[in-house]
Design a protein that fits this description.
mainly beta
């Protein structure tokens, strides 16, 4: 896997994650899960943030389905 986080400013950060999940018997059969997001702190006192991103799930053997499945996200985060 891979995890990368970059603090752009005091209130903004970029996060990138990726996981390679091979089939141990045959490495050409694998799944790859990638997640990229941008997070912005909206209110420091209440710890309220906005997060925008996408998650891509790739399967090298989709068995008749689409190989890529992409989800987009827009979240309002309240961290305690």
């Amino acid at each position: 896997g891979l995890d990368f986080e970059h603090q752009i400013t005091a209130k903004q950060k970029f996060v990138l994650k990726a996981e390679y999940l091979p089939e141990w018997g045959d490495f050409k059969n694998y799944r790859l899960v990638s997640d990229a997001s941008w997070e912005c702190l909206l209110d420091e006192a209440s710890n309220l943030s906005l997060k925008i991103g996408a998650i891509d799930r790739y399967d090298s053997t989709p068995n008749g389905a689409k190989a890529n499945d992409i989800d987009y996200l827009l979240l309002l985060l309240w961290k305690l």
